[in-house]
Amino acid sequence: MKILLTGANGYVGRRLLPELLSQGHEVICCVRDKMRLGFDAEILSLISIWEVDFLDDFNPNNCPQQVDVAYFLIHSMSSSTHAFDTMEARTAENFNKYSQVMNIKQVIYLSGIVNDPNLSKHMLSRNSVEKILFSGPHKLTVLKAGIIVGSGSSSFEIIRDLCEKLPVMITPKWVLTKTQPIAIRDVIQYLIGVQNRVDCYDQSFDIGGPNVITYKQMMQLYAKTRNIKLAIITVPIMTPKLSSYWLYFVTSTSYKLAINLVDSMKVEVICKDNRLQKMLEIKPISYVDAIKLAFEKIEQNLVISSWKDSLVSSRFKKSLAHYIQVPNFGCLKDSKSIKIDNTQQVLHNIWSIGGAKGWYYGDWMWQLRGAIDKLFGGVGLRRGRTSPSELHNGDSLDFWRVLLADKENKRLLLFAEMRVPGEAWLEFRIDDDNVLHQIATFRPRGIFGRLYWYSMLPFHYFIFNGMIKKIAAAN
């Protein structure tokens, strides 16, 4: 079948794609920025890419034709704290227009469970998108899930951050809200299982795991599974805004995502029925088993996707192509070069930078810079990296974004997503003479940008000198 996969570089899309390819489907990956589609050469050779932003005006040029199944995996919850519902509605309306041109037979929409009468703005928006998609020219199948648990999922990573970092938690009363978490493995089974099923056309289904538990119980079960001591004290006085700040500072989530999550966490997310589970003969795994499975992937370095690598965790919404040409005019630079002996080992060192490995020199200074960035609303260092040894275009890397990861040509180019009065690049490159070049480029914004750069020079002197020497070491 010819399948259109929207949100292909999102958390669920990256998990679904390998399964679709293994079934022999012709897959068209639909993305806003093809440079963020961080797939390896093997996968890129098997897919087609359609670069389109459904928020833009309808433009049928270069639109795929005769699509059998389309997966609608688009949402804007992390893009705005106020206007995301308008953005999501516009996206769905434009998608319907494209659906007419592409002659899509079936659309499969992954939404959220909306059975509570007191819905959050987030869930009201999902409901609105469902109604818009139902008005389109295609047959629609809606799968409504709650908390998705898997290595790299935002919900899993938030719970992981909270439990691993805070042995004692003072929590708001929303932690007593009931939810029905589902493993990402089961979500993928449902998404594939409803393909081309006539009895699933123009239907909405709730999908969930076997456990109905509170958020507090989710954290307690996580702690028990990981053998962590955890005390949770619930208080009724924590406001939604304070709760959002609490999530933002303790976990790797952005503030925009945190405030929308808190709004949704006050609403019960429980399935009404399990019709689809019986129709597809799926036996969902428990929440505890989903945690264990997630850590198996983490420990084996087999995490396929992370929400942190998608556009939602980025400070910048422009295409990566906008930044990939490192400027020279009006820029301040710190350039270092060193002769190396073992090219492959140095490449390995470069590709392992950041995350748990650290930045090779002065890690406490990097951590301090990350804490300051977080204090001023930046991304900080908490995003880490998805894989300890692999990097792809578009990946997040602490408070950097990978613009170019070209191992064949021995070049790694990063763009700063921390809060700075200007724009910053960090490049590592090995030339044909086995010389490692490390270049930090900063394009300041006004006088404050220049003052910032010169105030950082003493730190740069030690950090950049120490970093290149450690990276060049063949061990």
Keywords for this entry:
single chain, 475 residues, alpha/beta, seven-stranded parallel beta sheet, globular
Helix content: 25-40%
The major sheet is characterized as:
7 strands, parallel
Give me the secondary-structure category. alpha/beta
Extract low-pLDDT stretches.
77-81
Q: What coarse outline follows from CA principal-axis ratios?
A: globular
Count of alpha and pi helical runs: 14
Radius of gyration, whole Å: 23 Å
Name the average pLDDT.
84
Q: In angstroms, what separates the terminal alpha carbons?
A: 49 Å
Strand portion: 15-25%
Total strands: 19
Spatial strand arrangement across the major sheet: 3-2-1-4-5-6-11
Give a structural overview.
- The protein is α/β, with parallel strands linked by helices.
- Helix content is 36%, strand content 20%.
- It contains 14 helices and 19 strands.
- It has helices at 11-22, 41-44, 84-102, 121-134, 154-165, 184-193, 215-225, 240-250, 255-265, 275-280, 287-299, 343-351, 363-375, 446-472; strands at 2-6, 26-31, 47-51, 69-72, 106-112, 139-145, 148-149, 168-171, 178-179, 182-183, 203-207, 213-214, 231-234, 332-339, 396-397, 400-406, 411-416, 422-430, 435-444.
- Strands 3-2-1-4-5-6-11 form a 7-stranded parallel beta sheet, sandwiched between helices. It has a 6-stranded antiparallel beta sheet with strand order 14-19-18-17-16-15.
- Helix 3 (84-102) runs parallel beside helix 4 (121-134), helix 5 (154-165) crosses helix 7 and helix 8 (240-250) packs across helix 9 (255-265).
